[in-house]
Design brief:
Strand content: 25-35%
Number of strands: 10
Shape: globular
Strand order of the largest sheet: 4-10-9-6-5
Largest sheet: 5 strands, antiparallel
Radius of gyration: 17 Å
């Protein structure tokens, strides 16, 4: 699912279910030494995806350790993003020379729990979701909005080193003309955006898709 959302210069690897994965590196093992089994499985699966993506780029696999705010630490010259939810894990990587930043997210395609949408959505977003739900009721647009905001944050943080609140990006989701279960979205930044190639960004652009019981989103930030 993730690869279809990425640009040509980005590689994605994903895994479903309870596949067997190579063991963690010792320094990764130390991070989850006291974690519950579910956390360990997710941590292992997503790092397995990341190392396979490194290999696709011709980069020797190495440990991926969480850094500030849990953001993954990538080998020099690479940028990337990881995501996992029940039964799914994925990683996307690109060379830093080809992209400024990227963010991916996957969620189970179910409605958000009660009260969550009110906490994450702006009034304009809520109104647009109502219209989308009336036109295409098979998509859980609230969960899609949440996923899009997660992808926006993951693309934002490596460029700024700062938190981005749910209320600081206004996301406009569009369904595809031929397939209402896939499309694009724009994220208008409501705070000063990062400077990339001498230009301050005012918005991010992303893609989304729904399938196999999941919703997946991706944001890619070019240099120009």
């Amino acid at each position: 699912m993730i690869e279809e959302l990425l640009t040509d210069d980005t590689v994605g690897v994903e895994t479903y279910g309870d596949e067997e994965h190579p063991p963690l590196y010792p320094e990764e093992e130390a991070v989850v030494a006291r974690a519950v089994d579910k956390r360990r499985r997710e941590f292992t699966a997503v790092r397995s995806c990341a190392r396979r993506a490194m290999e696709k780029l011709g980069v020797p696999p190495r440990a991926v350790l969480p850094g500030e705010r849990g953001a993954p630490g990538w080998p020099p010259g690479l940028i990337g993003s990881m995501t996992h939810c029940d039964g799914y894990a994925a990683a996307a990587l690109a060379r830093a020379a080809d992209l400024a930043s990227l963010g991916i997210d996957a969620e189970t395609h179910l409605p958000l729990p009660d009260g969550v949408l009110d906490a994450v959505a702006l009034p304009g977003e809520t109104e647009r979701l109502r219209r989308l739900a009336a036109e295409h009721p098979a998509v859980h647009w609230d969960r899609l909005l949440f996923s899009a905001k997660e992808s926006v944050y993951k693309a934002w943080f490596p460029l700024t080193g700062r938190w981005l609140d749910f209320s600081e990006a206004d996301i406009d989701i569009r369904a595809g003309d031929s397939d209402p279960r896939a499309g694009r979205f724009d994220a208008r930044l409501l705070v000063p955006g990062p400077v990339v190639a001498g230009r301050r960004l005012e918005r991010f652009e992303g893609r989304w898709t729904v399938g196999r019981g999941l919703v997946a989103t991706a944001v890619t930030v070019p240099h120009t």
